[in-house]
Amino acid sequence: MITVIGDLILDVFEYGESSRMSPEAPVPIITPIKTVYAPGGAANVAQNIHDLNCNVNLIGIVGADENSYHLENVSKNIYVSYIKDLENPTITKKRIIANNQQIARIDVEGKFNPLTISDYVGEGTQYVVISDYNKGTIGDCSEEFLKLRKRNIRVLVDPKKELHNYRGAWLVKPNKVEFETYVGKFKDRTELIGKAVNACRTFDIQYMLITLGSEGMTLISKQGVEAKVETDVTEVYDITGAGDSAMAGLVYGLVNNNDLIESVHIANKVAQVAVSHPGTYSVKEKDIKPRTVFTNGCFDVLHLGHLKLLKFAKKQGDKLIVAINSDASVKRLKGDGRPKFSQEDRKSMLESLEVVDEVIIFDEDTPYNLIKSVRPDVIVKGGDYTVETTVGNDLAEVIIFPRIKDYSTTKILEGTL
After folding, report:
1. What was the pLDDT predicted at 5?
2. 11 and 132: one domain?
3. CATH number at residue 355
């Protein structure tokens, strides 16, 4: 179980259109179209973790107002424990958007009294995520983190205050601006590492994960650099919520039995997916899992048509599995004169191709049972087939590669090509 504790925020997007300016002041007149509510702050972190198929419990403070109900309604399928504050409103950020341009933002907030964190962390919790937006829910956590450490619970922090407030955390994840606010500006990577190591030792923080935007992420421990992860985003549409997505990805990696460095790579991947979508995008597990592509055939005499099909197939996902008929299977399908090359030779030739990740030999007339076992996301077949005639079309998405004219193993062997 993962418990997220922090500042709950309701994000409100008021969309409208504008075609003229007000005669009263130099501001646009907006005709409203729709209002969209979304979880923000700790609620967004929890929603991201849930959408990555993890069990999560969300705890925070809301006001006794209508916006608290809006927040609960948009926190889909999450177990929430809201503490009602009768003197303060639910934290709300309302964005006014006209003609796809944000015109203004209206913030409504009070000042909550900090929660005693350990009181809200139940048995069976592996990780506690602290989402601190400095709105009052999270105070000085040093004593609380010590209690949780004694219970073998790892605490991960998205910070907004000085590091002494998070003494004893297992991991703290500041962005570059936050990091420089806490420890001072750094000139180069060597100075960054030195400052981070010193901060970890000073505040008894086991790890610090510094997110550096387009420069990726750097994981530091008390001993020094643990990992540097480069980013690979071709298009950035919106950085809204990227930090929340990264934290969710990190926790997702950990609870799925990846080590910390592997989990940092997953966090980086999740953040990349998030910023490649407009608005606040909650990354799903399917967005980050490798997409497996499957194709099959005899591949007896390898030719250009085969190569083009395989290159096309690899572009449909991350891992390409090629299934080839065994010698006995080819003989049953093609006659006594086939195959011209043994199954091991055909397997070796395909494995030598850069686009092919794995080759599997099957002995049946069709690969249906193999497809059930492999469970690919996509099946690619050549233009001789349709979706309906492709074996396994009930098990995965089917993509048909257009037939390459004048390339045929049979014609090559008959000498008619």
Report:
1. 96
2. yes
3. 3.40.50.620
